Amino acid sequence: MTDHTTRNLCAKGLNKRYGSQQVLHDLNLTIEPGHIYGLIGRNGAGKTTLLSILTGQNPLTSGQVTYGGEPVWENPRALADLCFARELNATAETAQISVKEFLYAGQLFCPHWDKQFADSLIETFGIDRKKRIAKLSKGQMSMVTITAALASRAPVTLLDEPAAGLDVVIREKFYRMLLDEYTKTGRTFVVSTHIIEEAASVFDRVIILDEGHIIADAPTEELVDQFRYLSGGKTAVDAALAARGLQPLQVQELGPHKMTAVRGDAELFAALAEDPALSLSGMNLQNVFVALCGHGDEEG
Q: Which of helix, strand or coil describes residue 54?
């Protein structure tokens, strides 16, 4: 039996087209074991499409997806280790079945399923097992999705917007559950989310998808450390940018004052900090995301 802790989930030259619309563009990606990945991108960036292709639920147009070197598509051996938990809704095919029936289906399709764990999660969330999916609130649907994802015990588990509809208290509980499960089992998680700021501390690696292209794939702290806000008088900021050939990101101006995000290394930031006319400040993951994917939009 192959140890799943040594198996990568890989995409090479991945393209996806719906008719004339190109959704994913020549993606190369390696999901390594033993990490919690954050997958972030704007609406329509292709996140759900990517997750569904990685788990063999959606055919690709060209390229390949492999797990442990084996093709994922229609390969039961590879698919047994993969779980894609997507957001439930009241119009889906599963809407008319009960929570209990939904979880039983998970038990049938997920070979690593932990029924006792599923039961304890449903009890923790306080969900009526007899209730139909269609009668659940949006938050409760998210809780059922999270239960299925965690109880699948799949070595590689991908969650699409798991915190959608959850209030801040339950979101915090979910992140604690995720970290606890990761610590206990070493499972690999890929979590797509729009709620970047509060989830950032959970992700040890981050993938940023922008208009169907991967524009960042790195350890979270390493990526964030490549960015700073540079501010000062407009003349001083413009001169510093021009002198070093820096591309301004997410520019904001207020009268004679200018602030922009810049990308660089410790040497560059040290040099900029020596100029008394300039000020440097740190950025968080959400700031970095806006700088890279805002395309000129103002923050706020």
A: helix
